[in-house]
Amino acid sequence: MNNSVVKIENVSFKYEGQEQYALKDVSFQIYDGEWLAIVGHNGSGKSTLAKLLNGLQFPEEGRIQIGGIDLTEETVWDIRKLIGMVFQNPDNQFVGTTVQDDVAFGLENNGIPREDMVERVQSSLKSVKMEQFLDQEPHHLSGGQKQRVAIAGVIALRPKIIVLDEATSMLDPRGREEVLDTIRELKNDHQMTVISITHDLEEAAKADRIIVMNGGELYREGIPEEIFQMDEELVGLGLDIPFPVKMSKMLKAKGIPLNKHYLSEEELVTQLWTSHSNK
Amino acid sequence: MDISLQQVEYRYQANSPFERLAIQNVSIDIPSGTYLAIIGHTGSGKSTILQHLNAILRPTEGKVVIGDREVTNAKKQKNLKEIRKRVGIVFQFPEHQLFEETVEKDICFGPMNFGVSEADAKVRARRAIKQVGLSEDILQKSPFDLSGGQMRRVAIAGVLAMEPDVIVLDEPTAGLDPRGRKEIMDMFYQLHKERNLSTVLVTHSMEDASQYADQIVIMHQGQVYKKGTPREIFYSPEGLIELGLDVPEVVRFQQKIEETFGTKLAKTCITLDELTDEIEQLFKRGEPK
């Protein structure tokens, strides 16, 4: 897993007319096949980072390399083929009048031959379990279904990397699970890299690695266990502590024997049961 | 001001080929001073109910009583301004509705529309901006130079400046980070207490509903599925889980503990503190059977 697919080196960026830097001297790498969560308060630079990855904006200083190619105005079209983006609001991402037209849109734009296109539309909708909805109009779908169609549109282009920019934040719990399960399956089947920009710490806890942004700077990077050991420090950064960690802390404070702060509820319950039985 | 929905039904585009039944047989009482949360999936009828609370929609069957006004399908309503003044709605992403040159003008727009003089409206704007936790010097800025979180607060101040008796919140924290979410929810709770408002919160978040509301209504497919206090609602969470709704983390964890330990805790816990105490008791009780 140690081949990097994205290299970000000393990147700084500020929006036109703004004095403050949205990103200040940010460097990190993203490895092939990993699930990377990027967390941080509103305005911490998360979404700016997403825009830079896809060449919607270019850094003022520093360098971005994707799949070994330097991201510049000349290479941006090649790089966009490598990266698929799914945004927050499902309603803002529909262009087609039916589900299959919508998925075909990106393929047409890329000049994919018709037979190939028909096949890819079918298979990508199948992979997000929306093949029953080919001729449905988008406004008949639920939020979760719309986001899955948006994902199908991205998958059809066979990107190496998929960026979720708060893609589940407007969905209800069931929709959120549907979308995340779909992405997990696709990631495993197609060896994709997933970059998820999120406020949902339960989701971040399931990532391979987490990057914490704060005020435009990279504040910390590490595996979930390391990041959630930061504890109250996370609250100070405008974030939160996942429930199982909070629960572990409070139980420990009551003198209930626990070895560590657990990241999953299942682990915590199992541990409680064990220490209860051993008393 | 009391609001009550009595056997309310609403059909969109009634008597047309596009007719769609959105809610039916919905009865909800919101006595003055209540903090009510309405929860349900997208499409469960939450937003339709919301629009009945200040007579944006008229029920196709049943009636809505708002203070001393009765809104039914039968008669065309006149002079709804009074209702709109007393029931303030904070819509989803309210910052999208900011439009004036300055924050002050934007906040004053609502009250002045309801006949408040400019001088009074400015006094209200100053009060409202403090209530949402911003400083007065922001009043002369353009709302479009503010951060997203600040814009949302300004939009909320615009509703508060109308000095409503009832405030209706449609997903007020969507898109905010955890700190922003907590700040906004705490702010509304404080206003609710201090100004003795009725508050209606429409949300996906069971966490917020269980923490802040006195009463919860669960909507499912256009009907009231369940209503009661948080403790009543979460006493048997299985039904909610079946509907694909979230239950609060505390409730979910209590369920897992009870399954694993094969025993019921003494009460339905709503807060982390309560649950910690109950688990401590479980350990004190000694050996499992």
TrEMBL record, chain A:
Belongs to the ABC transporter superfamily. Residues 6-240 form the ABC transporter domain. Pfam families: ABC_tran. Keywords: ATP-binding, Cell membrane, Membrane, Nucleotide-binding, Translocase, Transport. Signal peptide: none annotated. This is Energy-coupling factor ABC transporter ATP-binding protein. GO terms for molecular function: ATP binding; ATP hydrolysis activity; ATPase-coupled transmembrane transporter activity; cobalt ion transmembrane transporter activity. It comes from Robertmurraya kyonggiensis. It is a peripheral membrane protein. It is found in: Cell membrane. SUPFAM superfamilies: P-loop containing nucleoside triphosphate hydrolases. Coiled coil: none annotated. One of its GO terms (cellular component) is ATP-binding cassette (ABC) transporter complex.
UniProtKB/TrEMBL annotation, chain B:
One of its GO terms (molecular function) is ATP hydrolysis activity. GO terms for cellular component: ATP-binding cassette (ABC) transporter complex. NCBIfam families: ECF_ATPase_2, PRK13634.1. It is a peripheral membrane protein. ATP-binding (A) component of a common energy-coupling factor (ECF) ABC-transporter complex. Belongs to the ABC transporter superfamily. Energy-coupling factor EcfA family. The keyword Thylakoid does not apply. Pfam families: ABC_tran. Keywords: ATP-binding, Cell membrane, Membrane, Nucleotide-binding, Translocase, Transport. It is found in: Cell membrane. Residues 3-246 form the ABC transporter domain. Forms a stable energy-coupling factor (ECF) transporter complex composed of 2 membrane-embedded substrate-binding proteins (S component), 2 ATP-binding proteins (A component) and 2 transmembrane proteins (T component). Its EC number is 7.-.-.-. It is an enzyme of class 7 (translocase). It comes from Robertmurraya kyonggiensis. It comes from the Bacteria. This is Energy-coupling factor transporter ATP-binding protein EcfA2.
